[in-house]
Amino acid sequence: MIGRRFGALTVLARAERPGRYWLCRCDCHGKRPGSSLRGLKVVSDGNLYQGSPDSCGCMTAAKRHRARQTHGMSQTSEYRTWKEMRARCENTNGPAYRLYGGRGITVCERWRKSFEAFLADMGPRPSRKHSLDRKNVNGNYEPANCRWATSRQQNQNRRDNVLVTYKGETKVLRQWARERRVRYLTLYQRIVVYHWSPERAFETPVAKRQDRTLRFEGKKTSIAELAARFNMRCSTLYMRIFRYGWPVQRAVKTPTRVDRRTANKEC
After folding, report:
1. pLDDT tens column, 49-69
2. Contacts within 8 Å (CB) and 24+ apart, 117-122
3. How far, in Å, CA of 36 to CA of 224, rounded?
4. What is the 3-state secondary structure (H, E, C) of 136-165?
5. DSSP state for residue 107 in the 8-state scheme
6. Rounded Cα distance, 254 and 240, in Å
7. Which residue of 39, 150, 226, 266 shows the fewest CB atoms closer than 10 Å?
8. Where are the alpha helices (DSSP H) in 43-194?
9. What is residue 260's predicted lDDT score, i.e. its pLDDT?
10. Contacts of 242 (CB under 8 A, 6+ apart)
11. How are beta strands 9-14 and 131-134 bridged, if at all?
């Protein structure tokens, strides 16, 4: 009898109790949830042959856990996304409710009732850079309106995006800025603030600070030339003239902080 296996139990020795009882060790060695101390268990002769129990108790605990388990994905990013989606639309005390449920955005009945249905429709999250996005930002969470998208794709799908049509093609302003290699703020100011046409905004070259021209002493000159003449930084002159609106004469004649500190030391 010693050394024989019954399920996950191996008979070690005769137990010190009346009757035919055997001391057995489970394969888990007491390391699984629900197992006995060091995986040891005393079992009668008849129970061993009947196959009950077939472990120290760890397999019974595992069976109970599997019975309670639904989909086994509660620790995944997909499940967290599903829970957060429902909270945004249904939890009136949540910080994001006013932007979603408060605006009338809802989760479709199929997804609201079942995470498995959500996962079957959306599929696994492609990567850590992807998150749940609605194609129509004013639409509901439903299969036809949702996708996994990167942050760049989502930035092009914001409610505050500026759509611009140029040469028959409509894109968000951020995308135009990337394609034409112009700062977004520059294009935004030209089109939204100054109301330039897209053609003028896109086709007018962006002048560098040092190339900006102005008139000084009756002659046309550039910021770079003035800076070299008066031993100043281009950025200082640019800020004084174009940001603060100083007259050119005042901008070039007013000492900088470095000049003032040097004068004080000489005194």
Report:
1. 887 777 887 777 677 766 565
2. 118/78, 118/82, 119/71, 119/73, 119/78, 119/82, 122/78, 122/146, 122/148
3. 84
4. CCCCCECHHHEEEECHHHHHCCCCCCCEEE
5. B
6. 10
7. 266
8. 45-50, 58-68, 77-90, 109-113, 115-122, 151-155, 173-180, 184-188
9. 47
10. 212
11. unpaired
pLDDT at residue 264 is higher than 70: no
For residue 221, CA distances in Å to 163, 209, 214, 254, 256 come to: 38, 13, 6, 19, 21
Q: Tally DSSP H helices, then E strands, for the chain.
A: 13, 10
Crossing angle for the helix pair 77-90 and 115-122, to the nearest 10 degrees = 110
**What does the angle CA 153 – CA 155 – CA 160 come to, to the nearest 5 degrees?**
140
Place of tokens 């996005």: 133
Residues 6+ apart with CB under 8 A from 186: 177, 206
Of 170, 97, 92, 107, the closest CA to residue 139 belongs to 107
H or E stretch covering 228: helix 223-229
CA gap 26, 48 in Å, rounded: 13
Length of the chain: 267
- Distance in angstroms (rounded) separating the CA atoms of residues 252 and 184: 31
Lowest model confidence (mean pLDDT) among 36-45, 96-105, 120-129, 140-149: 36-45
Burial of 195 (0-12, 13-18, 19+ CB in 10 A): exposed
> Where do we find the tokens 């174009």?
242
Q: For residues 249 and 215, what is the distance between their CA atoms, to the nearest angstrom?
A: 10
Rounded-to-integer distance, Cα 33 and Cα 42, Å: 19
